[in-house]
Amino acid sequence: MATKFDIITGNDTIFNNKEYITDSIIFNTIESARNESEYTMYSDHKNVIILTAKKGHKVWLWTSSSIKDDTNKLIDICRFLRDCKIPKAEIYLKQDVAGNFSDLYALTTLEINYVVKDEFSLAVYTYSGEEISNIPGIALENDEKIILINKNNPQHIKLVTDFYTQLKDEFRWNDKFERKVNEYLDMELYAFIKDGRMIANAAIGGKTEQYLRIRSIAVLPNERKKGYGYKMCVFAVNKIKERDLTPILYTHIGNASAVALWGKSGFNVKDKLYLLKIENNE
Q: What is the model's pTM?
């Protein structure tokens, strides 16, 4: 008999499970979404949490360690996601169940023509350093300033639009540029301004009782390797530490420049995630 998944709230008892509490650092998004209306959470009330975002088609999946050896349970999860009929989805799950899950998902979705478009690992970093605001080399010059973007300010909108226009090809945003710009305008976004233009930024969001996520650090291509990414990382870390929270972030394991930046800035790998991108092939 297939497992039944019910819609749950942030008060479900699974959130008090010892293994979940220990593991939830991996899924900061689940923690930050527990009281957010744009998410729907499903659970079998024992082993598995499935979090489906109504925006962005992201699915965050938490499993207990025992599921690695439970093929039937993994198949039930795959079939549940298949039946949700999400046209394009990004599924995040633990690295240690990734191999079995991706293979089973491919098998259980054949009849409705889903295909796996990409799959790779993400490193989960947490900040373990001390206050770093006094490190030499991060002070701003006279022609530099950092501002908080206000989405209701036309000048700020232009700064953000001009900035991401120069990055849209690299980020592959050509068919979703306006939507992505609006997403960043809705974030807590800090812009590094030099000579009146944004040359770097840092986005923060996804708060839990203990952690706050650095969602991105971005620098214009012709301004890289000049220390601006490091300055924005330090700035974001200190903004988070001012709130007595621990910075957390995710990055592609193969992104050598980002990995080097996080290490230099006091971050250490806490765990690894697996990302499976699928879409309907019709």
A: 0.80
